Amino acid sequence: MSRPTLAVIDLKALRANFALAQSLTPGASTIPMVKANAYGHGMIEVSRALSESAPAFGVASIDEALVLREAGIKQPILLLEGTFSCDEVGVAADNNFILMVENSAQKDAILNASISRPVSVWLGIDTGMHRLGFEPHEATQAYLALSNTDNVAKPIVAASHFACADDLGSSATERQVVIFDQCTASMADATNDVIAKSLGNSAAILAWPKTHRDWQRPGYMLYGNSPFSEGQENANKLQPVMSLQSAVISIRRIASGESVGYTANWTADRNSIIATITVGYGDGYPRQAPNGTPVLVNGVRCPLVGRVSMDMITVDVTDLDLVSIGDKVILWGPELPVNEIAEHCNTIGYELLARIPSRVPRIYSN
Ligand SMILES: *Cc1c(COP(=O)(O)O)cnc(C)c1O
């Protein structure tokens, strides 16, 4: 008795993908990235499903971390962008959050904070992505400053992030590793500390074993889709976690020459049967999906025709034997990779998953 538009989330597949990430980097600690509502899958449920084996979780902000705490997640939570204001340092210390320290302002906020217990920190190093992190020549100084204050809990993890690890033919990843190794060697020389390290995102975990270090940070792969545009041995073992589903709510015959939908951007070149499905850009189905984007109706690929509306799409089902109101539709899932839909839309699966709004109920199975 409600709208049939749902995201069905297979927690067994999620756990299998996490186990794959762990098995590829034996001896490392593997931290699930659950930012942006766990890439649209539901941050609380995903974190609960992985909480038996996850040593920590990664999020984008202190607000996301507090949601997990309130939901009863006990592990440390890594704030990938660190603090946005000085007052967050005390909240992080009190809640066992780990702060990325990406610049001098964040470092100084920690050094100058009056906090009752030390806060855990990871030091971000810019090895080539040029978005966040200390420049390599500044990093040892920053490491020393953070080592020499009682405000910081030891050990400090040195971390960096790859710009191009999803490109299997690029030399950028190896260049970043060389810079990272030089930088962490200098920290070790300056302190005699054994430096704990973190590099890997999904692509690096799957395809770049030389990048594997003490802490891994998989995101996208946990949700069962490949970060690569081509096949890759380990990525081929991933199991898609989300199935975005809806149903047919209307069927009509139109004559050759008639158009469908806003802007009339598709015109039938034969007498056609059009099924209307109750899912649209208000549910995260991308408006830029062009005519011909595949939609599974009763398990058969049919082409999207006409513009995506806020709450509906239209599909050409002329070639299907039998279609009825109420028939099941899959927009993406194990049978139709979200990456394939993303390719039609000039984006990546990450964006399509992360943009699914709260009005789409998430239904958890397994
Ligand atoms: C989001 C994020 C990750 C995970 O990246 P995936 O490509 O989804 O595996 C890892 N590290 C950092 C710093 C991130 O922001």
Secondary-structure topology with pairs:
Layout: E1 6-10, H1 11-24, E2 29-30, H2 35-39, H3 43-50, E3 57-59, H4 62-70, E4 77-79, H5 88-95, E5 97-101, H6 104-111, E6 119-124, H7 136-147, E7 152-159, H8 172-191, E8 196-198, H9 202-207, E9 215-216, E10 242-254, E11 259-260, E12 266-267, E13 272-277, E14 294-297, E15 300-303, E16 313-316, E17 328-332, H10 338-344, H11 349-354, E18 362-365
The structure holds pyridoxal-5'-phosphate.
The site of pyridoxal-5'-phosphate (PLP) has 12 residues, from loops.
Word description of this protein:
It is a single chain. The chain has 366 residues and is α/β, with parallel strands linked by helices. The chain has 2 domains: 11-226, TIM Barrel (Alpha-Beta Barrel), CATH 3.20.20; 242-365, Lyase, Ornithine Decarboxylase, Chain A, domain 1, CATH 2.40.37.10. The protein is built from 11 helices and 18 strands. Strands 1, 10, 13, 14, 15, 16, 17 and 18 form an 8-stranded mixed beta sheet that branches. Strand 14 (294-297) and strand 15 (300-303) form a beta hairpin. Helix 7 packs parallel to helix 8 (172-191). The chain is elongated and about 75 Å long. The protein starts with 5 loop residues before the first strand and ends with a strand.
